[in-house]
Amino acid sequence: MLRFEFSSLINAPVEVVWNFHERSDILQKLTPPWQPVEIIRREGGLGVGAISEFRLWIGFIPVRWIARHTECIPYQLFIDQQIEGPMQSWVHRHQFQTENGQTRLTDIIEYELIGSEITESLLHRWVNARLEDMFRYRHRVTQQECEQK
């Protein structure tokens, strides 16, 4: 199992950061413009059973990715898990913690690539670098949106 973690401190209360993630357009806001991703649907907000569906483009090949929320503790965390997609497995934990009146936002992803351990050893650094780019963007947008309030 591979792991990626990205954390930042948002100068806003946890309620503001959580409520930002509840927005109906959150996937559009947090998807980097350079990523070849189409948002197909988002249903159910952040609660357990919520669904997000994407179409990823790997070259000219469309790949369907569906994630379902498996856990939600308001103002603390929500977890989504891939139920269909390009990974062998994918669990994404979104944590919100109060820290000196601010919010520590942490994304933790545990995943397995399709293929063998050799595939993982060859590709995990590349995948983590892409995740680093994406979450750096997501956290910057979150800071810009939430720190204005």
TrEMBL record:
Range of residues in the leader sequence: none
Natural source organism: Aphanothece hegewaldii CCALA 016
UniProt xrefs under CDD domains: SRPBCC_3
Pfam families: Polyketide_cyc (PF03364)
Transmembrane regions listed in the UniProt entry: none
Name assigned to this protein: Cyclase
Domain Coenzyme Q-binding protein COQ10 START: 10-125
InterPro entries in UniProt: COQ10_START, START-like_dom_sf
